[in-house]
Amino acid sequence: MSRDLLKPKKTLDIKKKIAIYIAISTLLMLVVLWAFNIGFLELFYGESAKNDSKRATRIISENINSIKSENAQFAILVKRLANEHLVNIAVVDSDGNSRASYTVHANTEIGYGDKQGMFFREAKDHGGYFEREQHIFIEDSIVRSFLIQSTIIKASDGEEYAVIVQCPVSSTKRELNIALKQLGIVSAILIVMSLGISYIIGQYVAMPIIDLNESAKHLTTEEVEIGFEGKGYREIIELKETLNYAQAEITALDKYRKELISNISHDLRTPLALIKGYSELMRDLPGEATPENFAVVIGEIDRITNLVSDMLDLSKLNQSERTLNLEYFDIVEEMKVLYERHSKLLGNLGYILEFQADDEKAFVYADQVKILQVVYNLINNAVTYSGDDKLVILKETSTKDKVRIEVIDNGEGIDVDILPRIWDRYYKSEKAHKRADVGTGLGLSIVKGVMGLHPGGVYGVITSKGEGSTFYIELPKIKESDIE
User: Fold this and answer.
1) How many C-beta neighbours within 10 Å does residue 483 have?
2) Looking at the DSSP assignment, which residues form a beta bridge with residue 404?
3) Which domains does the chain have, with CATH numbers?
4) Is the pTM of this model over 0.90?
5) Highest mean pLDDT, choosing among 174-178, 281-285, 375-379
6) Distances (CA, A) of 456 to 35, 168, 461, 482
7) I need a labelling partner for 104 at 20 to 30 A (CA). Which of 23, 123, 250, 325 fits?
């Protein structure tokens, strides 16, 4: 399949999408900002003015006792509060006389002394607090609204005063225009900033992803030496490491594939050549159609069949068919049956298979068929690499918690340099390829796959150069009394 066919449907690249998302976010922020400033400006303005008015009243109440002894200081306090909060303030006694006042906003009712006594009486009549609005009209248009608050407070000597505060609760047209101009400037700044942020994110966030994506397009078995580079933030570094790991796996898989092709070609070429040779011999020379020659042909066909079966088993173990049919069984009894069947076959080939068992019975909970397949593969592996004595020992031992099956040979042993790789799929030593009397060369991979599926399953090898090898598997031991 060509690379063009693998291309997804054309969509926006990540840099354009980032720019669109930032633009949408900025637009939403501007909409909210304008909505609040236009729709709620007057509300916020009025609430802020009321809070300032109440704060000024509270401070005057806290200092009311100095109104007689320090009248000048009290007047300064009133002036300061009026200027700080942009309100008009007047303090009158119960007779309606102004004791201190300051006017920030002209042409308002609080500036007329004859009305201050009225504000005292209104507050008194309403339980100590009274408020009302005042509107200043120019040519029948409302220019501004003021809220007048009158609060009765009492000094320590019992005399009562009214604190009258007049605050604007609506902005002027000029103030509104200023606010809108400021909002326009802020909006322009936000738009420019969003463009800058889009560019920065595109360069420092999107570009590493784009670079990794371009490198990943070359991640094929023909181009596995590319290497991946990435930096900037944690996810990019993790993605780089993941791709480099995938590259290493593909490189290893490609090597395994080449080894498989080489080994399988060798394993198939010899039996096929024998089958063809003996078949032609029996065809051309009818006297050569002997049972012995037929046995050679059948044996080579069996060898090819075993090779194909092992390849299928290995494929199942390493792909999706990873299920086990777990059951309780006596593994010693199964090893005896396996020995009786296998020893005859190996005896015909000139090998000796011995069986040793420390227990009369030993129960395990495992997939019986797959465990027997594992032991078959270990025996066939031992036969392939056995010593001159052609002796292979099948041995069962156990502890309180484990049952151990060992397959021992007296061959050359395994070089420590290749020991970690003997369980790998399709791996074969770089030494001359030895043609086995039984087995296919894939057995140890099947052992690894099957034992890896079993709960508590253990596999391994004990070997030394020139002293043979002991391959073993272990399974948890089950008490016979615990089996229902």
Assistant:
1) 10
2) 397, 474
3) 62-171 (3.30.450.20), 241-316 (1.10.287.130), 323-482 (3.30.565.10)
4) no
5) 375-379
6) 67, 82, 17, 18
7) 123
